[in-house]
Amino acid sequence: MNILALETATEQCSVALWCAGRVLALSEHAPRQHGERLLPMIEQLLAQAGIGRTQIDAIACGRGPGAFTGVRLAIAVSQGLALALDRPVLPVSTLAALALAAPLPDLPVLAVLDARMGEVYAAAYTRSAADALQPLSDEWLGPAAALSVPAAPAWQGVGSGWTVAEAALRARVANVQAVDAGALPEAAAVARLAAPLLAAGGGIAAQDLQPVYLRDKVALTRAERGLP
Asked: In this model, does residue 18 exceed pLDDT 50?
């Protein structure tokens, strides 16, 4: 089973290949360069693995939330590859991919990304298996100070949202045992989450793949920024 995975919803541009239970990955910090780097990285990874495109069984896609441009790119490239190869697509939450980076497997994790404009993207998970997560909340967008999470004895946090709003998040989440604010959603995690889905017969048609933005606009108006 070969799954090609893409994740470009943040400044990180990453591709991964689930190949017979092994994950190969390439990842670059490439702000505003995803469009230039993604396809060459895919070709480099396939060459490294020694397989051709026709040997790919499915395309896994980090479908957001995240940066509009990055999410759109992953969706478009995933759809293009899946249509050309007549393969299914496996959409994976970018926040779930981020949560898989949490270092403590026995603690629930609050995955939080900086959404700019004074807001964060957030979702809570618990790990149900090595490469499986159980959502504890819906994906959410809003000010960190307004976040509501389920009750739990202790938590861990991951993602850039903890850098910009750690005090507000700690005020909303009791007993935070560990925080990795530098963690990023990676295609390797997308591949790991997608593999059991494909093994269970999951996947959707390329034309049914949809981005998840959570937000309807990308910038504050001048009035919202206090400008004349």
From this structure: yes
Cβ pair 226, 64 in contact under 8 A: no
Note the pLDDT of residue 218: 45
20 vs 136, more confident = 136
102-180 topology per CATH:
Nucleotidyltransferase; domain 5 (3.30.420)
What residue type is 189 in one-letter code? A
Which residue from 214, 141, 149 is spatially nearest to 176, judged by alpha carbons?
149
CATH superfamily, with its number, for domain 2-94+185-208: ATPase, nucleotide binding domain (3.30.420.40)
- Is 2-94+185-208's fold the same as 102-180's? yes
Tell me how far apart the alpha carbons of residues 120 and 84 are, in angstroms, rounded to a whole number. Answer: 36
Q: What is the DSSP letter of 139?
A: -
What is the pLDDT at residue 222? 34
Q: Are the beta carbons of 111 and 95 closer than 8 angstroms?
A: yes
**Alpha helices, H only, the chain:** 34-49, 68-85, 94-99, 161-172, 187-199
Beta-ladder partners of 22: 19
Domain ranges of the chain: 2-94+185-208, 102-180
Residue 212 CA to residue 151 CA, distance in Å, equals 26
> Which residue in 50, 46, 52, 39 sits closest to 78, CA to CA?
39
Query: How many CB atoms lie under 10 A from the CB of residue 20?
Result: 7
Q: Is the pLDDT of residue 219 over 50?
A: no
pTM of full prediction above 0.90: yes
DSSP-derived 3-state class of residue 184: coil
